[in-house]
Amino acid sequence: MPLAVEERLGGAADGFRLMWRELLPVGRLGSGGYARHAWTAADAECRDWFRRQAEARGLRYEVDRNGNQWAWWGDPAAGGAVLTGSHLDSVPGGGAFDGPLGVVAGFAALDVLRDRPDVLPDRGVAPGARPLAVVNFVEEEGARFGAACVGSRLTTGALGPEAARRLRDADGLTLADAMARAGRDPGLLGPDPERLARVGAFVELHIEQGRRLALTPSPVGVASGIWPHGRWRFDFHGEANHAGTTGLEERRDPMLSYANTVLAARKKARLAGALATFGRVEVEPGGTNAIASRVSGWLDSRAAEEGTLAEVVTEIERSARERGARDGVRVEVARESYTPVVEFDAALRDRLVATLRAASGVAPPVLPTGAGHDAGVLAAAVPTAMLFVRNPTGVSHSPHEHAEEDDCLAGVAALADVLAGLLADGPGGDAGPGGDGGPGGDGGPVGGVAGVPR
């Protein structure tokens, strides 16, 4: 990494490395992947790590009504807060970077702003002028209870508290019971408009889940928006029977209908330029020598446009029902979650681009993503933007997910640039590139922090 960047980060570079080493073993499996699922022992360890980071910095630590964790630098009541962070939970067998990178980078960027006054010449940025918070949103991946972004959706009202409390894991335990066992009161779940009203902007840093950025010379990019995406449950009801005595023509085998639907999903998505994945399946009764009575599969589908997504899912459902009719299998389809297309706040997005361009002399790539994020949920309530850190292989949701340390530190530097400019605007500052916080104004980028030669 260029020495100038390491010098500008100061102790925050070593702080980032230390935080990363501390968090790395939590919830790690023998495969090298992770099982950090909401309201489990591994999740509790992650949450304790977050609390200790906040307390070690003398920050005001809070857990909101939905279980999200907050670490405040400055007075939350001051309003216009700048928010950063991500999540600490994982998909089953997931990688180390998806989510945690944004939380660790958030604390490291805060350290740059707090401990290096030379990074903020003539800014007057101080706690209280415009507060800064690092946040850990709970159950972003939906790995345990099947619904993604639970913490942020509850906070914005996109997910109702009663529906959230009824969510169940694979063992039948409800979200309400799991929270209670972890010492949280599920009766408090619900929208938090007063808290959101205190947030002026949210910037989430995340490893890119794809290879668009890796095909450029830039370690850091800016997100333009998020593809619409959703999850659908397909239930195929057949008839249980003996695998060794039931003739092929006598069977009502739901596995055949399911298998055909998986192939149809791939074909329909390919023809439409979309994405469709059956990544989870449950079979009853699950005997090797038994024909299944029921097969349930969960479809994840995404596309650049909502109309395309709707058409692809409709075609997949049609294929499932047609094949089910041939096999004597009853098919039920239910949408479990849906997120429309998200366009991040244009003024804030342009602000990020201008800040990074001024710091490095090169405009960062602006690129869309098909992955969902808490930032996509909060975008409906507050000005929101995202920074991406380069992923050399594009692999994600896998133990092979990776980002180089130099790129991660470049991400910390870029985040510090952005946060510094937003904080310097003051609670009523203009987040747009042409306002007082724009390039060349009092709220412009921190010169040199993200100065990575291209």
Detailed description of the structure:
With 454 residues, the protein is α/β, with parallel strands linked by helices. It folds into two domains: 3-227 and 342-425, 3-Layer(aba) Sandwich (Aminopeptidase), CATH 3.40.630; 229-338, 2-Layer Sandwich (Alpha-Beta Plaits), CATH 3.30.70.360. Helices cover 35% and strands 20% of the residues. It contains 13 helices and 15 strands. It has helices spanning 3-9, 11-23, 41-56, 100-115, 150-156, 161-166, 175-181, 193-197, 254-272, 306-327, 346-360, 374-378, 405-425, and strands spanning 60-63, 69-73, 81-86, 132-136, 199-207, 220-226, 229-237, 241-242, 275-284, 290-291, 294-302, 330-339, 342-343, 366-369, 384-389. The model is unreliable at 120-124 and 432-454 (pLDDT under 50).
How many strand segments? Answer: 15
Report mean pLDDT, rounded to a whole number.
90
Molecular shape = globular
CATH class of the largest domain: Alpha Beta
Largest sheet: 9 strands, mixed
CATH architecture of the largest domain: 3-Layer(aba) Sandwich
SSE arrangement, N to C = HHHEEEHEHHHHEEEEHEEEHEEHEHEH
Q: What percent of the residues sit in helical stretches (DSSP H or I)?
A: 25-40%
Computed over alpha carbons, the radius of gyration is 23 Å
CATH H-tier superfamily of the largest domain:
Zn peptidases
Please report the number of helical segments. 13
Low-confidence stretches: 120-124, 432-454
